[in-house]
Write a structure and sequence with these properties.
The chain is α+β, with helices and mostly antiparallel strands. It is built from 16 helices and 19 strands. The longest helix has 15 residues.
């Protein structure tokens, strides 16, 4: 049986392909590729981040894993006021929640995989120790964030050496991250959530005015959750439940009449309604709020030779997370709690903050149709809806769907369009409107089309896809 991989970076794709070629399971390949991304895409993901994952064994409902952290118990409205904040800040220690990224991968391997955590970490460790070449996405993000990163004692020397953002083609070595991966290989995720590394994370965060405690780290667990679902044109679409944006996708598809030709004004309206109902209304997010964090994420899709599929999304949320480097992990800690600021919500200590990251999965008659996901903050549900409409109603294959132009409802409610979109005739001004730093999202898909397994990667961020016979 055919296997396929799609990721945002060719090095991660190659690592997954090697695992699958050696007879590995889709989860083995996904975890191995994800650790590689933790090294080569530090602006998007890392040991200091979090994530979500679907695993589908070929029939029925997928298993769903939530690797996100809860709001620290000391992070309260009163605590923020006493620290001089009117809300959770966009960056810095007060925006940090427990980093569940490694625990998510460890749990997935233990419950579904066949290789050891040490084997999965191996390729990433090699890139960290020997060095990796900077790709355009990392270079452009370093340039955009360089003014803030330069003074950080960990992130500055790595990505803004001597005050100059790293350029495409430069070589980055990260020996501290290599050492951290060695410890993870031998001790597992407790090396990050506890012990000297966990203590160092807490100390760094609190020194920067954060509320994270060792008790918060010890409380963290990867959770099995019940996914949401909706039937759409003979397919079943699966999404993560609240507090993620998953219900936005389900709500949008519930509002849509599943007929061709597609009414794109109706798709736009349904997408906006779905996001509003789920509490992620872009129009309600005030553009002028100071220090709005720019988000970043990465997504992996794969299906192995036995038909098992993985949909995995992982993130440090903002570009380089909280802009707070931790020497013991050789990289940034995430700023997930800043979604509370973005959505004008009060912190609820011990509860999960809102999450923009959502893996997607589609089945038909219980069998896999595709796994899909999108990097790009509030663009994630919008692009997922458009991709599903392209594939299910228009009959496009995964790559053709990824390549088609998209719309985006931006912060404040303005509409932006890519050139060639069907809505351009009605909304011509949207063609010249900027979608913001997150752009129109970066998607990956692996799925079945006309009896063949296909893999698609988004050229918008230089993604990489491979099909293995």
């Amino acid at each position: 049986m055919t296997a396929a991989v799609a990721t945002s970076d060719p090095r991660a794709t190659a690592a997954a392909v090697e695992v699958l070629s050696d007879g590995g399971h889709a989860v083995d390949a996904a975890v191995t590729a994800c650790f590689v991304l933790y090294v080569v895409e530090p602006q998007s993901c890392g040991v200091g981040g979090d994530g979500f994952m679907f695993v589908h064994d070929g029939e029925g409902a997928p298993a769903a894993l939530d690797g996100s952290g809860a709001v620290p118990l000391e992070l309260t409205t009163e605590g923020l006021r006493q620290s001089g904040h009117d809300a959770v800040p966009a960056r810095g220690g007060a925006s940090v929640t427990p980093p569940g990224a490694v625990a998510l991968l460890e749990t997935a391997l233990a419950e579904h995989g066949t290789i050891s955590l040490a084997d999965a970490v191996g390729p990433a460790r090699q890139y960290a120790a020997s060095g990796f070449e900077v790709r355009p996405t990392l270079a452009s993000t370093a340039a955009r964030s360089g003014g803030s990163l330069a003074s950080d004692p960990v992130l500055g020397p790595l990505y803004v050496p001597e005050g100059t953002p790293i350029a495409e083609g430069a070589l980055v070595r990260n020996p501290r991250l290599a050492e951290c991966l060695d410890v993870i290989a031998s001790e597992g995720s407790q090396a990050v959530l506890g012990g000297p590394i966990g203590a160092a994370i807490v100390e760094r965060v609190r020194r920067d005015g954060g509320f994270l405690s060792e008790a918060d780290m010890a409380r963290h667990r990867t959770m099995a959750v019940e996914p949401g679902m909706v039937d759409f044109a003979g397919h079943t679409v699966w999404q993560m439940p609240s507090p993620t944006q998953g219900p936005s996708v389900l709500g949008a598809l519930e509002c849509l009449e599943a007929v061709a030709p597609v009414d794109w004004e109706a798709v736009l309206a349904a997408t906006s309604e779905g996001m509003q109902a789920a509490g992620f209304d872009p129009a309600a997010i005030v553009v002028g709020r100071p220090k709005r964090a720019t988000g970043d994420t990465t997504f992996l899709a794969m299906v192995d030779h036995d038909g098992t599929a993985v949909s995995l999304i992982t993130s440090v949320f903002g570009d380089f997370g909280a802009h707070l480097g931790v020497d013991e992990i050789g990289g940034p800690i995430h700023n997930r709690a800043t979604t509370l600021r973005m959505l004008s919500l009060e912190p609820q200590p011990g509860a999960k903050p809102p999450h923009t990251t959502i893996p997607g999965l589609v089945t038909r008659d219980g069998r896999l149709g595709c796994v899909l996901g999108v990097a790009g903050g509030i663009m994630q549900p919008q692009a997922q809806v458009q991709l599903i409409v392209r594939m299910v109603l228009e009959g496009l294959g995964p790559q053709a769907a990824v390549d088609r132009p998209r719309f985006k409802v931006c912060f404040g409610g303005d509409l932006a369009l890519e050139t060639g979109h069907e809505l351009a005739g009605v909304h011509p001004a949207a063609l010249s409107r900027s979608p913001g730093p997150e752009g129109f999202g970066a998607a990956q898909i692996v799925g079945w089309h006309q009896g063949r397994l296909e893999a698609a990667a988004d050229a918008r961020r230089g993604g990489s896809a491979t099909v293995l016979d």
